[in-house]
Amino acid sequence: MQTPIMSPKCLLDFIMGNELHILNKGTEPSFLDSGRQEVMDITICMKHVMNLVRDWRVFSEPSGSDHRHLKAIQLKEKLGHNSRQTDWMGYRPDLQSQLCKAPSRFHTKEDLEVASQYISHAISNSY
What we know:
Order of helices and strands: HEEEEHEEHH
Radius of gyration: 17 Å
Strand content: 15-25%
Number of domains: 2
Number of strands: 6
């Protein structure tokens, strides 16, 4: 199965339409090869997580790939769900069975939005 390519406009529409936020700071290239350097890797999150992350940056050390390592420090703060009380043995199979039914072909922006909503719903309802 071939992975669909998303245009920058579709990606931006998806991010804004789902009220997500880009954590990237600066213009340090995250992709380097012999012919080019680009800022192409992004880190996105939901609004309530945005204030829990600080010091986002691109590492300058070699990563063994043409993509450089990204770093963001997550501040410890309660997000409202105690993961220690989650039944992880039950969560994983339940989530896996729901994700098997998720849409996997994206021909339009709407297809991608439906898949995103399905996956978000599956993750939050599997707790």
